[in-house]
Amino acid sequence: MSIWLEQPGKKRIGLMGGTFDPVHYGHLVAAEEARYQFVMEKVIFVPASKPPHKSRKDISTPEQRLEMTKIAVSTNPYFTTSDIEIKRAGLSYTIDTVLAMKQVNPDWEIYFITGADVILDILTWKNIERLLRECYFVAATRPGFHLELIECKLDRLSKEALARIKTIEVPALAISSTNIRQRVREDRPIKYLLPDEVEKFIYQNSLYLTASW
Ligand code: ATP
Ligand code: MG
Known about the structure:
Blueprint: E1 11-18, H1 25-37, E2 42-47, H2 62-73, E3 79-81, H3 84-88, H4 94-104, E4 108-115, H5 116-119, H6 128-134, E5 136-141, H7 148-153, H8 159-163, E6 165-169, H9 177-185, H10 196-204
Parallel strand pairs: 1-2, 1-4, 2-3, 4-5, 5-6
Helix pairs in contact: 2-10, 4-6
The structure holds adenosine-5'-triphosphate (ATP) and magnesium ion (MG).
Adenosine-5'-triphosphate (ATP) is lined by residues 18-21, 26-27, 30, 114-115, 117-118, 140, 170, 173, 175-178.
């Protein structure tokens, strides 16, 4: 059952931004739950070219991250990928991506899907008030997450902006790309944390074997 009402003439599209280094089941579960609850036509995974909030110098190439993301979404007919941020290069700002996508697709109503950790950090984002006028945010929280934390941490936002942040609960998947990279380096298993085909890609391309962060 959807928790969202139809807006006539608009297509609801989810955007899932991230580094995806590598993409894992935490990303996929959050995107699928958001798609289902908000009845989105599709969810587009957008790997960042050079994420402004990450300073690690050794992330895999953008092409490798895009390829892993393509592999991961290939089994879901509602999921797709975009290379818009990778093609743009330089820093990736969500506002630029959302505006560019809406310019080409004026009938899109965009829902930017994030994890709870990211939503608590958005006050530092470029043009956040404008961004929250241009799109909705869907914050995937774990069961037990205190929703008041969002209002409390983001109290500098206008009431209108805050109202455009929706929350959904996803099963608690304590999976992170950081942990997966560390596991590969330590020769520990990563099976069941991400799709088999992505695991294969990581080993075939010898990713994450050296630590430089
Ligand atoms: P890293 O450890 O390198 O930061 P990550 O696992 O957090 O990687 P990102 O590419 O940074 O992955 O995250 C992309 C988006 O997915 C962010 O909005 C993040 O909050 C969300 N996300 C990451 N892991 C999970 C998870 N286990 N469950 C739900 N959402 C997640
Ligand atoms: Mg992260």
